[in-house]
Amino acid sequence: MPAQDDHLITAVTTVPPVPLRKLRMHSPAPGVEYPFSISDIAHATALTLGPDWGADAGHWGITGHLFSPEDQPFTLLVDIEGDLCLTYDRDDRWPESPQLPRGAREFCAGVFLPDVCVIDGLDHIAQQLAAAVRAITGR
């Protein structure tokens, strides 16, 4: 016959976990969980880079596009690991090995900023990206 404590432990461990959807107590209004989108970051970065730069939203605002004065496109996105990435086509006019700013790391399709997050604020993120773009383009 099991001890009384063993029965209690069994009863506690057999309680099914609460489904994740039950833990959410409400449905937040749009824009509450995340105050800005990736396309907002693209627009803020274009403004930081100057009047010759342009930006546009990608599908659903989950990507953004920057356009250099020569209409060279850069795509802003978040990768599967949650890192903010800036992808672009390598161009012979740009430095082969750019001196990226602190916090920017190179990968095969462009650069990523693993340490930025939404709580840094839109302006700070735009400045970080603008510094990376300036290093990439040599301007």
Distinctive features:
4 helices, six-stranded antiparallel beta sheet, 139 residues
- Kindly, what is the distance between the CA atoms of the first and last residues, rounded to a whole number of angstroms? 80 Å
SS content category: alpha+beta
Oligomeric form = single chain
Figure out the total of helices: 4
Mean pLDDT: 84
Strand order of the largest sheet: 1-2-3-4-6-5
Q: Over all CA atoms, what is the radius of gyration?
A: 23 Å
Helix content: 25-40%
- N-to-C SSE series? HHHEEEEEEH
State the total count of DSSP E strands.
Answer: 6
Strand content: 15-25%
The coarse overall form would be globular
Offer a concise description of the structure.
Helices cover 30% and strands 19% of the residues.
Structure write-up:
This protein is α+β, with helices and mostly antiparallel strands. The chain is 30% helix and 19% strand. The chain is built from four helices and six strands. It has helices at 4-13, 20-23, 38-49, 122-137, and strands spanning 54-57, 64-67, 73-78, 84-88, 105-107, 110-113. It has a six-stranded antiparallel β-sheet, with helices on one face. Helix 3 packs across helix 4. The mean pLDDT is 84.
